[in-house]
Write a structure and sequence with these properties.
Layout lengths: L4 H10 L4 H10 L4 H11 L38 H15 L2 E6 L2 E7 H10 L1 H13 L2 E6 L6 H38 L3
Antiparallel strand pairs: 1-2, 1-3
Amino acid sequence: MEITLEQVERLREKADVSYARAKEALEYSGGNLLDALIYLEEQGAIPRPEGTCYSTRGETPPMQEAPLTLIQEPGQQESMPKQKIGVFRRIRYLLLDNELEIWRKDQPVTALPVLILIILLVAAFWITVPLLILGLFFGFRYRFSGPDLERESINSVMENAADTASDLGRQVMDELRSQHDKYKNKNDDDPT
């Protein structure tokens, strides 16, 4: 794609860079102005606005403590206090950015956002909890991941619960095997 002088000048209006640098960024981005700006930011040619983060990996940036402001028309009353918006933002981060990971044999099976887990617990408590507990006996392991819930204390408790369920399952299976062997030996000894 050929880069025009107009494109270079538009980029130079947005970013204080040389003609050659602007043309290079536009060529790299295929003529896309936004991608060229991001490229220049990544190269350090222009300063990145504070608190921004670009990612193609689906990662979320760390939560900023700056208060969220509402866009209002002049003379309009503020409809919601800034603190409430901060609380809602925090709840949103907690529910969507944190996940319950389900593992089996040291391989990830799936991950559920905490919001989905809460909905399942509220809507189908008597199905969800037994399935989670039954999963422990079948070798599944659970752990939380994310910026808020990925703590060693929470995940170690969940590991201990999985280990306890695994030990209990082994004890039950050993007891069943010994009872089966006793029954089998008794029938082998009794010729009738």
